[in-house]
C-alpha cells in the first residue's frame, strides 16, 4: 500500500474519555453549519462575559461590503478570562512552565503569580501613558515576560503587536511605524542554542529609522545581563517599572469586537500586512480549538514548541491554553541543543502530555537517525500535533514512531495567521488519521474547492481552497487598510474567503493541503513573500532585477531560490553572491536568507512584461522537461540559458 492510503483509526480507549468522539463530532459539526447562531451562542457560555452577547453573528463576505462581527454587543476582558477567573479553582496550579535554552534553567509560574505580575505590568504600562486602544510593540525572547506583556496589554485594552525576535531592525522599524507604537518591550538579548541575539541593539538600530520617533519608552527585560547601550529618558528596565506597581489592576471592559492584537504576516505582494484580531470571537475560537483538537484535560502539561512571534504562539502558547486554565510549557531554545534528544528530555522532565510542533523541527531531527530520543521515555505523551506546512508522510511516520512510541495520534492542523485558530484538523477521539492529511473541517468551518474561475468543484478533486462563511476566530481586517484586506482575501472569488492554498479532497471527504498557490513561500514553516525578498535585492546597487521562487528542500520544506540579473557593468562572482545573501539577511532577517542564487542574463517574461514564475519554479526544482507552454515568452532563449546554468543539488 502507498503511504497515502495508510489509515490510523481512532484509538477507542482514547475516544472513551475524549471531549469529542465520532458521534459528537458529526452532531456538533452539523449543528455548527446549519445553525451557527445556536452553536456559537452555546459555546460562548464557556467564556466569562461582563455582558453576555445577544447578537451572535453578523458577517458579510460580499466584496463590496466585507464586514465581520461576532458577539458584537458582548463585553469581556481577555486577560480576566485567562487569569482572574481561574484564581479560585486553580490559583496555585502552574500556568506557565518555562524551560530555558540551558537545561539547568527552568521555572514555574502559578496562575496567582502570573495574575499578580500581569496586573503590575499593566499598571506599569499605564504609568508610561498607555491607554485603551493604544498599540504596544513586543520584540521579545521566549521568556514568560512575553506572555505577561501580551496579557498586560489585554488587561488595559491596549493592542499588542508582537514582532518575531529573528526579524531585522528594518523589519521591526516598519512594523513599529505602521502600528504607531509609543512603547516597545524587549530584552537585552535572547538566547537560542547557546547563542545570544542582540535584541536591544536591534531595537536601538530600528529606532534610528524614519518615523520611529513615535516611540517614547523602551522597556527592557534583563535576560542575559549582556552589554547594551542605554538611552536615558527613553529606556527603562522592566523590573524597575513593574516591581513598584500595585498588584491590583482592574481589567478594562472591552467590546467583543475591540482589537486584541495586530500580527504582521507576508502576502504575495507589497509589505507585510498587519492582521487585526479582535477579542471575543478570537478568544473563544482559540480556547475551543485548543480544548477539543488537543483533547486537553485538567491538570495536563501541554507544550506548543512555536515562538510567540507567530500566530501559533499567540493562539496555542498563550490565549487558548490560558483561557482553558491549562499548564502551558514555554521553551526558549531549539530542539537540537544541547543534543538532538532535547525534546524528549523536556517531555520527561515536565511530564508533558501534549506536544505540538512543526514538520521542519521534525525533519531537522529525523536527519540524525532513529536513536536520538533513546535517552528519554516519553511515556507521558498522549497526543501530538503538527502545524505550519504540509507534513510529508516520512516525517509523520518518524514523529509517530520515534517521538510518540507509536501510540500517540498526530493532529495535523491546517490554519493561518488570518484564521486565528485551527480550520482543518483531526480530533483525537473522532478522526481516523492518514499521514500527511489535515482531514476534516473544525466546527463552523465550511471549506470548498474551486477552479481558477471560481466554479465550485464537487467530490474527490484538486482545487483552490476557499471558506464559504465566517468563523469567530477570523481576522477582521488589515490594520489601517481594510481595502487591502478585501482585495487580498475576498476579491479573487466573489463571496468567499480565499486561503491562498491548494488542496485535494479524497474519496472520504478528507482534505490534503498541497501548499501555497500564490507567491508566498513557506520556509521552515515561516511565511515569506517573494515580493519582499525581491524588493530587498533590487535595492542593492549591483542588482538590476530579481525573481524569487521556492524549491523543494529536504529540511526546510521550501528553500529560497533567487534569479538575479546584474547591472551591465557588474561582474558576477561568488563574493557577490555571498554579499547578496548577507544583504537580504540583514535587511529582513536570517529566515529570509537565500539558499541559492543563480545569475540570470534575462528572466522569462511574457510579451506584456510579466515574469513567468511557473517556469522559474520548474527550473529551480530541476524539472526541466515539463516546462509547459513557453510560446508566449518574449524571448524563449533566456530559458535555455537558465536551464543550462541551473543549480542542481546533490
Ligand atoms: C501553511 C501558521 C499544510 C499553509 C498557522 C498556510 C499548512 C500557511 C499547515 C499559513 C498544515 C499551515 N498543512 N500547510 N497543517 N499549517 N500551513 O500564517 O500554506 O504562518 O496557508 O500560519 O502555512 O502560515 P501562517
From TrEMBL:
It catalyses: acetate + ATP + CoA = acetyl-CoA + AMP + diphosphate. Gene3D superfamilies: 3.30.300.30, N-terminal domain of ligase-like. Its cofactor is Mg(2+). Keywords: Acetylation, ATP-binding, Ligase, Magnesium, Metal-binding, Nucleotide-binding. Residues 84-467 form the AMP-dependent synthetase/ligase domain. Residues 25-82 form the Acetyl-coenzyme A synthetase N-terminal domain. The modification N6-acetyllysine is found at residue 610. Residues 532-610 form the AMP-binding enzyme C-terminal domain. Acetylated. Deacetylation by the SIR2-homolog deacetylase activates the enzyme. It holds the Pfam family ACAS_N. Its EC number is 6.2.1.1. Mg(2+) binds at residues 538, 540, 543. Signal peptide: none annotated. ATP binds at residues 388-390, 412-417, 501, 516, 527. Coiled coil: none annotated. One of its GO terms (molecular function) is acetate-CoA ligase activity. Catalyzes the conversion of acetate into acetyl-CoA (AcCoA), an essential intermediate at the junction of anabolic and catabolic pathways. AcsA undergoes a two-step reaction. In the first half reaction, AcsA combines acetate with ATP to form acetyl-adenylate (AcAMP) intermediate. In the second half reaction, it can then transfer the acetyl group from AcAMP to the sulfhydryl group of CoA, forming the product AcCoA. PANTHER family: ACETYL-COENZYME A SYNTHETASE. Belongs to the ATP-dependent AMP-binding enzyme family. NCBIfam families: Ac_CoA_lig_AcsA, PRK00174.1. This is Acetyl-coenzyme A synthetase.
Amino acid at each position: 500500500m502507498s503511504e497515502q492510503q495508510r489509515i490510523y483509526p481512532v484509538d477507542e480507549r482514547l475516544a472513551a474519555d475524549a471531549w469529542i468522539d465520532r458521534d459528537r463530532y458529526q452532531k456538533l459539526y452539523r449543528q455548527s453549519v446549519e445553525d451557527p447562531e445556536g452553536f456559537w451562542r452555546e459555546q460562548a457560555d464557556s467564556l466569562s462575559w461582563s455582558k453576555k452577547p445577544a447578537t451572535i453573528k453578523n458577517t458579510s463576505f460580499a466584496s463590496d461590503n466585507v464586514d465581520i462581527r461576532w458577539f458584537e454587543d458582548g463585553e469581556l476582558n481577555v486577560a480576566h478570562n485567562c487569569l482572574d477567573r481561574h484564581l479560585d479553582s486553580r490559583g496555585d496550579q502552574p500556568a506557565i512552565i518555562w524551560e530555558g535554552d540551558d537545561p539547568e534553567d527552568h521555572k514555574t509560574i502559578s496562575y496567582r503569580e502570573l495574575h499578580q505580575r500581569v496586573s503590575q505590568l499593566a499598571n506599569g504600562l499605564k504609568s508610561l501613558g498607555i491607554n485603551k486602544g493604544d498599540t504596544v510593540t513586543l520584540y521579545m525572547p521566549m521568556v514568560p515576560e512575553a506572555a505577561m506583556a501580551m496579557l498586560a496589554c489585554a488587561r488595559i485594552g491596549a493592542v499588542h503587536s508582537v514582532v518575531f525576535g529573528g526579524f531585522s531592525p528594518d523589519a521591526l522599524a516598519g512594523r513599529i511605524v505602521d502600528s504607531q507604537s509609543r512603547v516597545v518591550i524587549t530584552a537585552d538579548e535572547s538566547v537560542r542554542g547557546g547563542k545570544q541575539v542582540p535584541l536591544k541593539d536591534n531595537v536601538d538600530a530600528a529606532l534610528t529609522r524614519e518615523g520611529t520617533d513615535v516611540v517614547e519608552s523602551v522597556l527592557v527585560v534583563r535576560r542575559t545581563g549582556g552589554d547594551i547601550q542605554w538611552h536615558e529618558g527613553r529606556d527603562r528596565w522592566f523590573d524597575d517599572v513593574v516591581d513598584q506597581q500595585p498588584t491590583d489592576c482592574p481589567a478594562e471592559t472591552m467590546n467583543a469586537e475591540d482589537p486584541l492584537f495586530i500580527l504582521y504576516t507576508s502576502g504575495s505582494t507589497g509589505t507585510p500586512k498587519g492582521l487585526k484580531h479582535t477579542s471575543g470571537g478570537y478568544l473563544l475560537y482559540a480556547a475551543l480549538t485548543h480544548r477539543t483538537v488537543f483533547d486537553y484535560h485538567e491538570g495536563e502539561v501541554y507544550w506548543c514548541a512555536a515562538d510567540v512571534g507567530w500566530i501559533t504562539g499567540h493562539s496555542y502558547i498563550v490565549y487558548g491554553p490560558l483561557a482553558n486554565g491549562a499548564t502551558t510549557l514555554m521553551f526558549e531554545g531549539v530542539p537540537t541543543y544541547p543534543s538532538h534528544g532535547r525534546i524528549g528530555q523536556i517531555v520527561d522532565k515536565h511530564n508533558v502530555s501534549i506536544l505540538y510542533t512543526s514538520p521542519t523541527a521534525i525533519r531537522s531531527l529525523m536527519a540524525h537517525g532513529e536513536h536520538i530520543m533513546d535517552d528519554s521515555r516519553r511515556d507521558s505523551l498522549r497526543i501530538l500535533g503538527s502545524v505550519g506546512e504540509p507534513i510529508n508522510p516520512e516525517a509523520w511516520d518518524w514523529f509517530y514512531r520515534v517521538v510518540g512510541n507509536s501510540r500517540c495520534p498526530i493532529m495535523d492542523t491546517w490554519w493561518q495567521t488570518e484564521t486565528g485558530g485551527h480550520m482543518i484538523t483531526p480530533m483525537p477521539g473522532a478522526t481516523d488519521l492518514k499521514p500527511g492529511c489535515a482531514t476534516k473541517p473544525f466546527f463552523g468551518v465550511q471549506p470548498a474547492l474551486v477552479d481558477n474561475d471560481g466554479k465550485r468543484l464537487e467530490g474527490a478533486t484538486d482545487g483552490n481552497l476557499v471558506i464559504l462563511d465566517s468563523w469567530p476566530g477570523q481576522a477582521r481586517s488589515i490594520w489601517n487598510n481594510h481595502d487591502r484586506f478585501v482585495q487580498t482575501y475576498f476579491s479573487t472569488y466573489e463571496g468567499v474567503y480565499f486561503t491562498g492554498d491548494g488542496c485535494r479532497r479524497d474519496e472520504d471527504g478528507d482534505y490534503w493541503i498541497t501548499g501555497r498557490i500564490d507567491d508566498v513561500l513557506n520556509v521552515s514553516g515561516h511565511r515569506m513573500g517573494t515580493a519582499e525578498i525581491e524588493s530587498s535585492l533590487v535595492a542593492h546597487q549591483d542588482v538590476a532585477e530579481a525573481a524569487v521562487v521556492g524549491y523543494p528542500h529536504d529540511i526546510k520544506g521550501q528553500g529560497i531560490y533567487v534569479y538575479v540579473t546584474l547591472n551591465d557593468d557588474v561582474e558576477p562572482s561568488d563574493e557577490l553572491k555571498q554579499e547578496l545573501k548577507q544583504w537580504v539577511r540583514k535587511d529582513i532577517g536570517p529566515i529570509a536568507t537565500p539558499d541559492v542564487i543563480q545569475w540570470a542574463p534575462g528572466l522569462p517574461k511574457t510579451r506584456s512584461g510579466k515574469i513567468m514564475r511557473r517556469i522559474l519554479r520548474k527550473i529551480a526544482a530541476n524539472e526541466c522537461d515539463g516546462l509547459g507552454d513557453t510560446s508566449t515568452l518574449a524571448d524563449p532563449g533566456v530559458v535555455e540559458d537558465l536551464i543550462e546554468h541551473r543549480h542542481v543539488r546533490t
